[in-house]
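Structure (tokenized):
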């Protein structure tokens, strides 16, 4: 990022300390006071630094300027995966599992999700604000005093990665929530699908009167309007198709879906580390009897096996993706029905010489 751009971005980034990302007052009240989002945008960085917002499951967030090396170090992904979020791939759609992270490139949403936090590129862009607002509502800031009070209550478990403190009023019939990474993915898909559906509705609202006018009066002017709308429709259909195809690709591959379970992998890594520690401790502690040693190793192996037993269980993610795949199918069908009207208009255009 050049110096001239930083001169524009830095005041904006600093001003985010006065912006409300709580979601309590919605997108239209982004000028409120921000109490849970710190900003580190005052210091200029070298070229390539871009504006990012981080948010964790407890609602803590900050808006910062990071270059590629800082991002790569934070989430442990290679540079080639960051290029997916760049302008060259702005028209592509990708949901990729990369070790401990998920790279999400859906329309205007460019994000990197881990089991503990989401890193969102260009959070102040107008199109991205609905996503920020939804994240704020889904992950409200948890007061440290409230967490401490909850910790004093032995009936309420403390939070861990991918888990939440249950609300006392809703304790009965409490259902297991999706892990953090899938909650973020669900919000991203909801925002993108809503945006695309709204774009189709706007196009239909504009197209049908033009087609009606063409039916009454086949003129060069009306035909040009139809051709212009047809071009817009084709581009919009291609965008919908790309998101739909990406979901279809994931639904067709259980292994790819399993790799997106970041919280599960995080837990398994912790179990493996614990196993290694137990084995190492047992090998160094010569005072343990052989039966006791065998019992410890057996129980540890059983724990690890159970942690890996559900590796191929992707039902939660499959249901999530299937729901939005069907929604995109409906949006796609709307635009295809509209395309039939434009096809009729193109046939009529042959009546009038160019």
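Design, position by position:
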């Amino acid at each position: 990022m050049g110096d001239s751009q930083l001169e524009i971005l830095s005041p904006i980034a600093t001003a985010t300390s006065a912006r409300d990302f709580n979601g309590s007052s919605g997108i239209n009240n982004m000028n409120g006071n921000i109490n849970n989002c710190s900003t580190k945008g005052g210091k200029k960085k070298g070229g390539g630094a871009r504006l990012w917002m981080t948010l964790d499951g407890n609602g803590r967030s900050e808006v910062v300027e990071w270059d590629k090396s800082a991002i790569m170090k934070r989430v442990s992904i290679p540079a080639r995966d960051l290029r997916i979020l760049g302008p060259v791939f702005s028209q592509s759609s990708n949901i990729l599992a990369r070790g401990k992270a998920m790279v999400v490139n859906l329309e205007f949403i460019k994000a990197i999700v881990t089991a503990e936090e989401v890193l969102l590129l260009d959070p102040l862009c107008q199109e991205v604000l609905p996503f920020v607002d939804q994240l704020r509502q889904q992950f409200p800031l948890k007061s440290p005093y409230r967490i401490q009070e909850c910790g004093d209550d032995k009936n309420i478990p403390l939070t861990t990665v991918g888990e939440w403190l249950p609300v006392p009023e809703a304790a009965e019939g409490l259902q297991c929530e999706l892990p953090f990474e899938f909650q973020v993915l669900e919000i991203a898909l909801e925002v993108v699908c809503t945006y695309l559906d709204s774009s189709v509705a706007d196009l239909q609202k504009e197209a049908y009167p033009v087609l009606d006018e063409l039916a009454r009066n086949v003129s060069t002017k009306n035909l040009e309007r139809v051709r212009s709308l047809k071009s817009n429709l084709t581009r919009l259909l291609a965008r919908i198709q790309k998101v739909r195809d990406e979901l279809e690709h994931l639904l067709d591959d259980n292994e790819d879906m399993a790799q997106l379970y970041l919280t599960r992998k995080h837990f398994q890594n912790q179990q493996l580390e614990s196993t290694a520690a137990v084995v190492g401790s047992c090998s160094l502690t010569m005072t343990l009897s052989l039966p006791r040693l065998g019992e410890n190793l057996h129980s540890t192996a059983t724990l690890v096996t159970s942690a890996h037993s559900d590796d191929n269980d992707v039902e939660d993610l499959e249901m999530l993706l299937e729901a939005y795949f069907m929604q995109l199918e409906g949006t796609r069908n709307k635009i295809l029905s509209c395309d039939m009207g434009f096809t009729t208009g193109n046939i009529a255009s042959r009546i009038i010489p160019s």
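Reviewer-requested clarification: The chain is about 55% helix and 10% strand. The longest strand covers residues 50-56.
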